[in-house]
């Protein structure tokens, strides 16, 4: 007699059991046929939960007291940071190595070609370079926090912007993701990016280059594309899109990747709520303000104000409206 499949649960309803086995067979066939929705034979895919755990530890380094222990002496700060960095480096190196092997495997039909020792050495080098960037990332975040406080009269203290403001949270994760993106780490920057997007409603691709003292006010619905460049002391409100005008294709009709598709904002640019700025050749000059609701696909010289056509407003008495 053939043994029962231990993976098929028993059911008191024979008809239901037959149905579930039939559906299970159909799903298994679908899984084996469609490689796009499975990842069963490459165990080195980065683990999202581990990546987010690393993010939490990084935030503890970048914002001590806001994350983690709140009472540390000067001597304890040094030992605490050193211990955190050791934890971060070990887990990050493993995740980066997995991401590199994943990219190598997908490039070569599912079988990685690079030598394991070479991949381990490369991942260690990436972690070394990334951790060396952390003091600079922290300096930039300090300026971002101050920009949030200076840019919002509702803020009562810089602590409030760190604890409560989605824009500060989004730029924190972006600066981490951008550093890893610049080191050509596959997948992990996008995992971080989409985590920030889901938590804040602010969608900043890790490839976007953002200068000092950046503030996203309110933030929900902001989209900043991969090849966007933003200068120093820029401020963006909710619902702003810095996007692509079109998606260029090659001779075979495939999307061309790695080309400049998104706009550039020079220093001291403010973009108000609901504005849309598109195009890789669109440059917004320094000191310019783009008013809310503007749809812009052309460059603007420095120190200008761009506004949409004035909407004519009518006020009707209720009796006129009802009639």
Structural class, please?
alpha/beta
The rounded distance between the terminal residues' Cα atoms is 83 Å
Tally of helical runs = 8
* Rg computed from alpha carbons, rounded to a whole number of angstroms: 25 Å
Shape: globular
Which CATH first-tier class of the largest domain would you pick? Answer: Mainly Alpha
**Sheet of most strands:** 5 strands, parallel
Strand content: 5-15%
Poorly predicted runs of 5 or more residues: none
**Total individual domains:** 2
The CATH H-level homologous superfamily of the largest domain: serine acetyltransferase, domain 1
Oligomer: single chain
CATH topology of the largest domain: the name is serine acetyltransferase, domain 1
Order of helices and strands: HHHHHHHEEEEEEEEEEEEEEH
Instruction: State the share of residues found in helices, binned by percent.
Output: 40-55%
The appropriate CATH architecture of the largest domain is Orthogonal Bundle
Strand order in space, largest sheet: 1-4-7-10-13
Give the total of beta strands: 14
Mean pLDDT: 90
């Amino acid at each position: 007699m053939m043994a029962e499949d231990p993976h098929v649960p028993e059911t008191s309803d024979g008809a239901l059991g037959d149905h579930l086995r039939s559906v299970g067979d159909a799903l298994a066939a679908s899984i084996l046929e469609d490689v796009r929705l499975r990842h069963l034979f490459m165990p080195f895919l980065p683990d999202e939960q581990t990546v987010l755990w690393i993010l939490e530890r990084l935030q503890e380094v970048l914002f001590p007291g806001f994350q983690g222990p709140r009472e540390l002496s000067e001597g304890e700060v040094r030992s605490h940071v050193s211990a955190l960095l050791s934890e971060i480096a070990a887990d990050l190196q493993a995740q980066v190595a997995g991401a590199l092997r994943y990219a190598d495997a997908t490039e070569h039909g599912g079988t990685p070609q690079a030598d394991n020792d070479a991949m381990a050495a490369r991942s260690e080098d990436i972690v070394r370079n990334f951790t060396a960037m952390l003091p600079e990332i922290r300096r930039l975040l300090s300026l971002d926090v101050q920009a949030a406080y200076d840019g919002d009269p509702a803020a009562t203290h810089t602590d409030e912007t760190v604890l409560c403001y989605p824009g500060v949270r989004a730029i924190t994760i972006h600066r981490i993701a951008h550093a890893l993106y610049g080191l050509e780490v596959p997948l992990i920057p996008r995992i971080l990016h989409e985590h920030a997007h889901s938590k804040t409603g602010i969608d900043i691709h890790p490839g976007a280059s953002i200068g000092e003292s950046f503030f996203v006010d309110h933030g929900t619905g902001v989209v900043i594309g991969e090849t966007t460049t933003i200068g120093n002391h820029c401020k963006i409100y909710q619902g702003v899109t810095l996007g692509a005008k079109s998606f260029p294709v090659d001779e075979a009709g495939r999307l061309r990747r790695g080309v400049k598709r998104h706009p550039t904002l020079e220093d001291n640019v403010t973009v108000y709520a609901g504005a849309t700025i598109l195009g890789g050749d669109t440059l917004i000059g320094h000191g310019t303000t783009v008013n809310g609701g503007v749809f812009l696909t052309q460059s603007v010289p420095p120190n200008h104000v761009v506004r949409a056509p004035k909407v004519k407003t009518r006020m009707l008495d209720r009796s006129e409206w009802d009639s």
